[in-house]
Amino acid sequence: MASKLVPSNPEKVMVIRDLVPRTITTLSVPFFRFGKIKIGGRGTIVRLQSGSLAVFSPVALTDEVKRKVAELGEVKYIAALDAEHHIFLGPWSQAYPNAQVLGPETLPEKRAKQKNEDVPFAFVFSKSKPITTISPEFDEEFDWEYVPAHINKELVFHHKPTRSLITADLLFNLPATEQFSKTGVDANSGILTKIFGALQNTRGTAIWQQRTIWYGTSSSDRPGFAQSMARINKWDFERIIFCHGDVIESNGKSVFEKVFKWHLDLAKSDATKRS
């Protein structure tokens, strides 16, 4: 199944970019939802002030990626940001066995059922047992929010020194222009891609993405989802690093508030009722 989702030649089509020199590096690749829809994929490497590396939503571990990692520092943390973003978790964990693996509840069981590589999870985020600390060096630089109300059990991180929000499937910013830039294929081509892109972009009022998240992604527990969005909105971020679609370098907070306006309004209304 993975062969239908990701490229067979990732080393030729991956875009490795230093988003923030010596601090944030992105690994952008083509990715096809359901094997047909061009949504792109992106792994993010953050170099902590200690020199340790935190890897979020890892993508293919090519030789070039290994060289880049060796240049940056030692991988200490590997995070699967939701129950879907784990295809390359095994190879990264095997290559960097001293790294602590982070992921949401349901993922260890899912991987076992799928007979994926054995990965020792150091931290499994759950609604019943909130994780409030990872390590002193990690805690100092990151905020995080586990969103169990998200259909994919989403983890969201905020790198405070660079004011960067790192997401998986929380919201999209299609088309995936950078992620398909080395393929020779138009990231917006194909009728299914065009339809999905119309639903999952941040342009204009982003009304269709608002509706998709309100009636779909968060529908199982809309109040709980809204509370998570309100907590994230208190963070001081400017940049949004998406797994699917292009990075937003500035005004990320205003984009977040636009896409999640209905949920933020709901959280505010619930807070008023409780007061």
Automatic annotation (TrEMBL):
Protein name: DUF4336 domain-containing protein
InterPro entries according to UniProt: DUF4336, RibonucZ/Hydroxyglut_hydro
